[in-house]
What does this fold into?
Amino acid sequence: MARILVTSALPYINGIKHLGNLIGSQLPSDAYSRAMRVMGHDVLFICATDEHGTPTEIAAAKAGKSTAEFCDEMHAVQAEIAKGFRLSFDHFGRSSSARNHALTQHLAARLAEAGLIEEVTERQVWSPADGRFLPDRYIEGTCPNCGYDKARGDQCENCTKQLDPVDLIDARSAISGSKELEIRETKHLHLKQSLMRDRLRDWISAKTDWPVLTTSIAKKWLDDGTGLQDRGITRDLDWGVPVMKGPGEPWPGMEGKVFYVWFDAPIAYIAATAEWADANGLPDSAWQAWWRDDLGARDVRYVEFMGKDNVPFHTLSFPATLMGASGDLPSGHEDWHLVDYIKSTNWLNYEGGKFSTSQGRGVFMDQALEILPPDYWRWWLLANIPETDDVNFSWEHFQATVNKDLADVLGNFVSRVTKFCRSRFGENVPEGGDWTDLEREAAAEIEAGLARLRDAWEKVAIRRAAAETRALWVVGNEYLQRAEPWAHFKTDPDRAAAAVRFGLNLIRLYAAVSRPFVPDASDRMLEALGLTEADAAWPGDAGTALTALAAGHPFTVPDTLFAKLDDATREALEARFAGEG
Ligand SMILES: [Zn+2]
It folds into this structure.
């Protein structure tokens, strides 16, 4: 059995995410982790909130809270919503944790030892009223090109012209509105990614099994224009990981500065793994065995999930950090484990347009859970994950999909088999009869389908895994139509008993293979059969798997697994989430 480390891109702390964010990384990484667990692998599934950066400070100020207090509250909210969607993180950490502070400082110090950090003097806008340097996007003014009066220092949203803060007419702080701005010199650390271009290119070129979406984005950044650029990894802010060479070890000249959020956020994958060890009373060696090749991580398969916008940071910046910090350096030898597979997704659109937080357009994670249980969302989103192209969410398609796949196919099968058995044979797996060609044919179809499903999961082909899972449900329904136990009950009760027994065993198999998609339904199928999560293991050969529940095994009839979404409800939901216009 393999050791598989799975990370989901970190949700930013400043608000509740919409369904497009959910299917971008958290949900597919959960489904994959669950599938690998069902297959018996040793899985560690890690996520965290990404808490640093100016947007957090601004959101906190707007909410009238301190940044730390705001982050505490929003982390709790996001953790609760993650539970609501049954996201099965082994640990949901925080990029603001003490572990992340220490690891970020440690890795930066190693990069400096390796000669990969350069001090650069920059000229930046200083706002005396705010008492801080302002990032370009927090300087507002009138666009010199089109006259739009809320153009940002980096770009005019109205005419898309790229701007420099000095271009703006009537420039002001977007935080305080103060127009009294000055230019000051400030020193920053740059990561010399340009020195690592060849190593990164060799590494990426060897990843022949990665999706084209991933490698093409990485190669574009490696070779665009003058090639991979060095990158500022520090900022003049209060909220973040202080620039130090380790806890209590100052970095001369960098006092009062923090690491840039994009430097510390991916390191939080490692830090959250250390938090996981801490939370479980395990020693450092426990988390290091997942991340340090020199300390036992060589056999780990590390799989990252993210939206396509995050690919450059995960194929270039984060690997540059880990590669640069690895090897023999004055402070000792360390080998950090780089990602083995990156799964990236395209965008989910909402009813032909974009999800919009500001316009209230589209469904947000908390709202989704108020409307329907998580399995409905999980199934539609995973079965339609934007793997090769952007995908559109529409209520009509959602209604049609969940009604057909979940209610008519899976739910109906479970209901028919258990209810028929209870009414004719009672609440125990009936005895009598043997497999006929009907059962042997269905078992052969299941066997072939399981092989295809396993292949889809191993290739992280989630849409295909959903289609293969649905196909397994369909085999059961078609079998039931042909076996017709209700027609045989009076004339040949043994034949009917054998068919029902086969059907009940199929439910046990469905509980295992459906678990990555619809974990609640899986739990209820197991519960109805008097089984536990430990019984939701990947079926071996179909012959054994479909005879596992022997005659006499007790069961109960579960309540309806999936109620149908009716037209009136669907129309009301369409209207509710249409947005302001
Ligand atoms: Zn403009």
